[in-house]
Automatic annotation (TrEMBL):
<feature type="domain" description="Radical SAM core">
    <location>
        <begin position="91"/>
        <end position="303"/>
    </location>
</feature>
<dbReference type="InterPro" id="IPR058240">
    <property type="entry name" value="rSAM_sf"/>
</dbReference>
<keyword id="KW-0413">Isomerase</keyword>
<keyword id="KW-0949">S-adenosyl-L-methionine</keyword>
<keyword id="KW-0479">Metal-binding</keyword>
<dbReference type="InterPro" id="IPR022447">
    <property type="entry name" value="Lys_aminomutase-rel"/>
</dbReference>
<dbReference type="GO" id="GO:0016853">
    <property type="term" value="F:isomerase activity"/>
</dbReference>
<dbReference type="Pfam" id="PF12544">
    <property type="entry name" value="LAM_C"/>
</dbReference>
<dbReference type="GO" id="GO:0051539">
    <property type="term" value="F:4 iron, 4 sulfur cluster binding"/>
</dbReference>
<keyword id="KW-0663">Pyridoxal phosphate</keyword>
<dbReference type="InterPro" id="IPR013785">
    <property type="entry name" value="Aldolase_TIM"/>
</dbReference>
<protein>
    <submittedName>
        <fullName>Lysine 2,3-aminomutase</fullName>
    </submittedName>
</protein>
<feature type="modified residue" description="N6-(pyridoxal phosphate)lysine">
    <location>
        <position position="317"/>
    </location>
</feature>
<dbReference type="Pfam" id="PF04055">
    <property type="entry name" value="Radical_SAM"/>
</dbReference>
<dbReference type="InterPro" id="IPR003739">
    <property type="entry name" value="Lys_aminomutase/Glu_NH3_mut"/>
</dbReference>
<feature type="binding site">
    <location>
        <position position="112"/>
    </location>
    <ligand>
        <name>[4Fe-4S] cluster</name>
    </ligand>
</feature>
<feature type="compositionally biased region" description="Basic and acidic residues">
    <location>
        <begin position="330"/>
        <end position="346"/>
    </location>
</feature>
Length: 346
């Protein structure tokens, strides 16, 4: 009897082609993509792919289109590098900061705005660099919230994650710790009791889950998320508006409803950040606003995310609407979800 082969994360272009996830004639172009951007498709996502260009496959399977850089695209589209006072820290807003302890992910999204930096071969802060980053946070008492991001902070060992959480929790001015992660949907088996123990704190701990399509919310993912919630850690969601993934009212509604059903509050729907080679995912802002307007009144307010643009250059996030209020010399006018206009007093 032969041993069962344990599923593994696909990383090589040869393996993608052999599995029918990419055409053999694209091998040279895909090798060129692989030299620049990391690839990883974990077993959980691999099982969900029905065809390479479906909403799951599009997110993780490399394509020659990634070699095309549009004039407006940038290797640092939201100004992380310019706003990094020490390695691992991004400080964009007065009362909060990002801590990036590593640049490793369970999968590598083809639309990632940090795609020039993330990858399986590095990006882990050394002990000295981590101490420097934590000391920077300790020395800035205006910082009330620290967001662990990366990479994916839940790829850390429980020991290292626990050290970071305990150190932040000991800073009197840090009130909130937020972890941004794709792990619960990409590799739910990593959500072990030991990792959950590492998230224990007397501060306000929040998990922000990144998922973009309802099919990512598998039974295993829901169990992993329920284990987080059982620790009294509330969960928010963030998603990116992506062409061919969630750019229809039906797909977006299904995603938002899947979040709410799993006791997750939709938080942000991001306009795509213009990283190099991502133009094939772009949905115009006007189309995104129309999508949300189409859902207004169809889905509960619990499922309503804030549609945001991270202004290129590091100038911060702003909501994109849709808008329902107009004003002219005769007064205020408001549109209801059905498009009818109603007059209001000034």
């Amino acid at each position: 009897m032969t041993d069962l082969v344990k599923p593994h994360t696909l990383r090589r272009m040869r393996d993608l082609i052999e599995r029918g996830l990419a055409p053999a004639e694209d091998r040279a172009a895909l090798d060129a993509v692989a030299e620049r951007y990391a690839t990883a498709i974990p077993p959980t996502f691999l099982e969900l792919i029905e065809k390479p260009d479906d909403p799951i496959g599009r997110q993780v399977i490399p394509t020659p289109a990634e070699l095309l850089t549009a004039p407006h695209e940038s290797i640092d589209p939201i100004g992380d590098d310019a706003l990094s006072p020490v390695p691992g820290i991004v400080h964009r807003y007065a009362d909060r900061a990002l801590l990036k302890p590593l640049l490793v992910c369970p999968l590598y999204c083809r639309f990632c705005f940090r795609r020039e930096h993330v990858g399986p071969d590095g990006g882990l802060l050394s002990d000295a660099q981590l101490d420097t980053a934590l000391n920077w946070l300790r020395d800035h008492p205006a910082i009330r919230e620290v967001i662990l991001t990366g990479g994916d902070p839940l790829m850390l060992s429980p020991r290292r994650l626990g050290h970071i959480v305990r150190t932040l929790s000991a800073m009197p001015h840090v009130e909130t710790i937020r972890i941004h992660s794709r792990v619960p949907v990409a590799d739910p088996a990593r959500m072990t009791p030991e990792l959950l123990d590492a998230m224990e704190t007397d501060r306000a701990m929040w998990l922000v889950l990144h998922a973009n399509h309802a099919r990512e919310m598998t039974d295993d993912a829901r169990r992993a998320l329920r284990a987080v919630q059982a620790r009294a850690i509330p969960i928010l969601s963030q998603s990116v508006l992506l062409r061919g993934v969630n750019d229809t009212p039906e797909a977006l509604e299904a995603l938002l409803r899947a979040f709410v059903t799993a006791r997750i509050k939709p938080y942000y729907l991001h306009q795509l950040d213009p990283a190099p080679g991502t133009a094939h995912f772009h949905v115009p802002i006007a189309e995104g606003r129309a999508l949300l307007a189409d859902l207004r009144g169809r889905v509960t307010g619990l499922a309503w995310p804030t549609y945001v643009l991270d202004i290129p250059g590091g100038h911060g996030k702003v909501p994109l609407g849709p808008d329902y209020l107009d004003q002219d010399t005769e007064g205020l006018h408001v549109r209801d979800p059905n498009g009818r206009t109603h007059d209001l007093p000034l």
